[in-house]
Amino acid sequence: MEWYEDRNKLSGAVQFVMKFSCCFDWKVLASDKTPCCDYKEKDKEIPQGLKDAIKEYIGSLTTEERSDLMREMALLIGEKFYIRETTAVKVLSRILEDGDVRDNKGMLCLALMTQVNQRMELLEVLKAS
Fold it and tell me: Is 38 strand, coil or helix?
């Protein structure tokens, strides 16, 4: 049994991703191709079961919860009004393809350290000007 087949684990992972959304580069994850990654090709490696489980999870949310999720994801991606469910599934499956992010603390620490370093650099530039 895959981890995402457990509805509680998948729900917890998605809620964690949304709560700590600052750890993820949402605009890059929503793109099909970036200078460093061809996501369209990489998407073929994501298990269909994960995509189906995420789609089923989103479908099981109440109308209000689904609207909140879609609205928050749209803002994170940079869309002004609305994203389709397929976009939400695509982005979440890209984030969760390597497993429950709560189990990969090294990646989360790296993301946070990178953000702290970038903010410190920005602070230095602002102080200098």
Answer: strand
